[in-house]
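Observation: inputs received (chain + zinc ion).
Thought: call the complex predictor directly.
Action: predict_structure
Action Input:
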Amino acid sequence: MLLGALEAGGTKMVCALGNEKGEVFERESFPTREPEPTVSDIISYFAGRGIEALGVSSFGPLDLNEDSSTYGSITTTPKPGWQNVPLRTRLMDALGVPVGIDTDVNGAALGEALLGAGKGLKSLVYYTIGTGVGGGAYDHGRLLHGLVHPEMGHMLLRPHADDPAPHGFCPYHDGCLEGMACGKAIEQRWGVPARELPPEHIAWQIEAEYLAQMCVNTIVMLSPQRIVLGGGVMHQEHLFPMVRKRTLELLGGYVAHPAILEHIDSYIVPPALGNNSGAVGSLLLAVRALG
Ligand code: ZN
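Observation:
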């Protein structure tokens, strides 16, 4: 079955063709510009290719209420020109195939849950720690939406005692996860890109503290069977042991399950699909759109 996958990001649109097994055959990306030319690029890529459905993992916020007249639209994004763009409807009308849509992080969570690090499990939370921070939750076949959809990147954290920028850099919140721990926040705090900071730099202890608080909050709120940490910042592999150790310390033995207490190395893990979580998840959203 030939399916389309779109990872709609704030800086680029990644279009791919693949199948229901999550195999990606080809992909192409375009810069995200004004909505009209950008959506036209996407339509030109998929038109006439014979796809049976399209899955979209998109930046947001999105309207994911299936009963809403604006279902599948981008809503209040600060990205200029993209407010209230009916992304799903535009693509469905132009391509004439079912279109499934979810947040970028829910898409990646679905990919990892079914075909990646969560294979065989019933629940998983996926975070991307990159330019921004976002999280998606999968539980017993469903992606968590709730009232709107979760905005895990904006959970509030306690500042590290040695953080020179203890309020973080989110324009909306004092001390939220994204404002404290995304790649841009690391760069703003230390004045150099994160990848240029050596592993022994205190920046990483502070980063590990925030990501451990995020994991603890996730464990006590959602109790997933696994937490997957992806995104550019997590390419710093030395972060994983630091985050795991600090998560155990902060939990204080309170959630006494062997998956955490004895097997933390396989509880907080990198994405098994590498950088493909979003593309694979989008293909699975296409499968779901077919019913
Ligand atoms: Zn925030």
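Thought: report the result.
Final Answer: Residues 124 and 226 are 5 Å apart (CA to CA). The beta strands are 3-8, 12-18, 24-31, 54-58, 99-103, 123-129, 133-139, 142-143, 227-230, 268-269.
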